[in-house]
Amino acid sequence: MSDNPNVQTLKAAYQAWIESRGTETKGWIEAVHPDVRMASLAAGKDGPGIRPLERGTNAVVQYLDDVMAHWVMQHFRVDRYVGEGDAVAAIIDCAWTNRSTKRTYHGRMAHCWTFRDGKIASFEEFLDTADLIAAATP
After folding, report:
1. What is the DSSP string of 16-77?
2. pLDDT for position 67
3. Residue 23, CA distances (Å) to 13, 47, 67, 131 in order
4. How far is residue 90's CA from residue 2's CA, in Å, rounded to a whole number?
5. How would you class 42 by CB atoms within 10 Å of its CB: exposed for 0-12, middle for 13-18, buried for 19 or more?
6. Which residue did the predictor score with more confidence, 119 or 22?
7. Which domains can be identified in the chain, with CATH numbers?
8. Which pLDDT tens digit goes with each residue over 92-109?
9. Which helix or strand (DSSP H or E) is residue 95 part of?
10. How does pLDDT run across 46-82, given as a tens digit for each residue?
């Protein structure tokens, strides 16, 4: 078990989010810095529920709302946390079903987080965008 407080912050936020099947976002909102920067390999690609990411708490709220508006969490499991100082990576196995197409994206992803003053300052998401877009495209 890591004694890195940033790892512990992420574990708590992920746990609440996973247990709620993606509907509980309070933990994320409380954990982010007001000027948080978000990035994803999928950002700006075509497909419902795939949007460019921006800065700030409102961007986090919009991102999470968009995910839940277009996708249903089938499973989401963090297999490993790797933390060093203000940098933390989460290695994830997940499956999401697109609400419109009924197709499921199943894959591995990495979430990379940077903290500043105990809050999430940046988020980067790495995943198989071709499979994600295929699941989202009619």
Report:
1. HHHHTTT---HHHHHHEEEEEEEEETTTT-SSTT-----BSHHHHHHHHHHHHHHEEEEEEE
2. 86
3. 12, 22, 10, 23
4. 13
5. buried
6. 119
7. 5-136 (3.10.450.50)
8. 999 999 999 999 999 999
9. strand 87-98
10. 554 455 567 788 888 888 888 889 999 999 999 999 9
